[in-house]
Amino acid sequence: MPVNHIAEQYLHAFTSGGDFPGGLAFRKALGQANLDFTPDSLGRIDMLLRQMRTRLRPDYTPFINKQENQTFLYLLCFYVGAVVCRYTRDDFAWYSYDELKEAAPPEFLAQIPEAFATSMVCLLRENGVLLPLSPILDLLFDEAGDASVLATADKTMRRLAHAVRLERPQSAAPRDDPRTAALHATAACAGWAAGFATWMICEGGILDTTLLHQLPNGKRQAVTLFDCPFEQARERLERMEDNAQVSVLAYKDVVGLPSVRLDAIVLDVRSAASKALALTIAVPYRAAGGDTPSPCSAPACCTRKGPARWRRPSSPPAFRRHRQLPAGWPARQVPGHHGVKHRAAHLFDRRRTRKEGMKKKILIPAALALALAATVGSAQPPATSPEATPATETNSADEAPVQTVQVRGVRDPALMPYEKAYDFLTRLRKAGDGRMDMVIRILSARTQQPIPDLEVFLQGETTYRKLALSPEGFLTMVLDPAYLKDKVAILTNKPKGAIVVEYYFVPTLPADGLRFADIGASIAAVKRAQREVLPWYLRPFMGTIREVMLCYPRKDQELLVTQGETVVRPANIEQKNMLSRNTVYCAVFNEAEARKAPDSLVAAPASPIALFR
């Protein structure tokens, strides 16, 4: 059984009063600790473990060897992980150490020695590696230690010390002041968004993630983001679409108050008038007729973004006794659960740029951006594009004569170095086996649109070559071993940070005689590419592709599926072409039917748009 499911079963059995195989030690004490999934409950776990250490004086080996005690420790481990993941809204995947050994490379395992403290490992997509058992064991067995479950978790959650209470000001500000007027407009739009969300819930509806805009003409606009990944919704909020003056992202979540855990309407607020202003407001509520008192009269500003100073984290403590750190601990690390939460070294490269309001900007390495883009969706450019733009083309050195032109260019962090691009795309082509490809698109970081005068070129000691870039922003990368020897760099004519790069898997299907077997082979190829090319630690977060969709700009298209008899399959499923952002209408084919009837023929109208899903 996957460890994620085991963690869910442990937490469900505890919260529902269910039984544990082998029993659960100290169940009454856990109930008295009021584990309500709030960050403050981790402080109560600290108190419980300190009391157990003082009163029971447990001996490590006899304690661990009892099944009911192991269940107690694993329950606390899964609980701490659940609190951290719910607070940060981070994606996670639990691994046992045996499973980790099968998935992780040796250099990663060298940083996490095998022990009971590492027997359950939680991978967080944005926050690295989480080892809740480590501070739990230190609290329970190390009398001289100063470990704390709450303090360790706080290094990942990064809570504000005190949430800002929204209170009425003592004196009214002059409304003719532009800044005050902007704040009033922002507050009014946030109130409208809260009212809209409250109305949806009171009417018995489902509060889908909704983006609300205050437009320059005074009108307000609400857009419901059906089936939109939360990260994309946040990106749309930051772009402030349609030249909005104020944008609010409203969604339903769960908040932990000091004494109770409640549903909440959460509002992420952005204002065009004040780029440094970024608020997240939570409005807790309860269902009518419930016993829990309603705290809706006291909403709180959960996060705020403004002038701040970046403080370098201190070095993490080493493992104690049975959890000794190996030699050669990497220099790039941040404090985590006993020094094994590798963020910068393994997952993300976070850099901060000094801009208005000291807004933090995260620059993700291109290889990681590529992997994340693949999870969002894949799309093939419409047939009306000037060319079916492949991501790569092969070339010999004879076809590109050496030039001595000196060109000034900028190496943008959004584009991976040429040697990495060469290795990545070569392995991708091999894994794809002609059944799938990759489209690379370059857009403006500010407008999310193609840049008309953008130039991308390769430059080395003896090489200069301009890369083909379509008006829609599709880039054709040239793969040539000679360029590797010349140590070429991928450069642009734009300032650093001016571009973003999107990567999408696309199916490669025959134009004539399309069979279900071709569709199944394309799905198998993209799965193989994800498995063999993507970094191992990202695979738990990758969406599994199981379908190919053939799509058209209009809803009136029909496909014919023939196996003995002919069946009409209408292309009427509305989807978003992730590459062009246009609405398309699709017929869906999944891998199950491809395996069941591989010889079935598909007759499609001309020039369908092929999408993975």
Q: What features would you highlight for this structure?
A:
single chain, 613 residues, alpha+beta, 3 domains, 5-stranded antiparallel beta sheet, 16 helices, 27 strands, 30% helix
- Average pLDDT over all residues: 76
The beta-strand count equals 27
Percent of sequence in beta strands: 15-25%
Largest sheet: 7 strands, antiparallel
Structural description of this entry:
The chain has 613 residues and is an alpha+beta fold. The protein folds into three domains: 3-157, no CATH class; 177-304, no CATH class; 366-612, no CATH class. Helices cover 30% and strands 23% of the residues. It contains 16 helices and 27 strands. A seven-stranded antiparallel beta sheet has the order 4-10-9-8-7-5-6, sandwiched between helices. A five-stranded antiparallel beta sheet has the order 11-27-21-25-24. Helix 3 packs parallel to helix 8 (133-141), helix 3 (39-56) packs antiparallel against helix 9 and helix 5 packs parallel to helix 9. The longest helix is centred in the first third of the chain and has 25 residues, at 178-202. Residues 290-390 and 396-407 have low confidence and may be disordered.
Lay out the secondary structure:
Blueprint lengths: L2 H13 L11 H6 L6 H18 L3 H5 L2 H22 L3 E5 H7 L2 H4 L10 E5 L3 E3 L2 H9 L7 H9 L6 E2 L12 H25 L7 E5 L5 E5 L5 H10 L6 E11 L4 E11 L6 E8 L14 E5 L61 H11 L1 E2 L12 E3 L23 H15 L3 E9 L11 E4 L4 E3 L7 E2 L1 E3 L1 H5 L3 E4 L6 E9 L6 E2 H18 L13 E6 L5 E6 L1 E6 L2 E4 L6 E8 H6 L4 E3 L5 E4 L1
Parallel strand pairs: 12-17
Antiparallel strand pairs: 1-2, 2-3, 4-10, 5-6, 5-7, 7-8, 8-9, 9-10, 11-27, 13-16, 13-19, 14-15, 14-18, 20-26, 21-25, 21-27, 22-23, 22-26, 24-25
Helix pairs in contact: 1-5, 3-8, 3-9, 5-9, 13-15
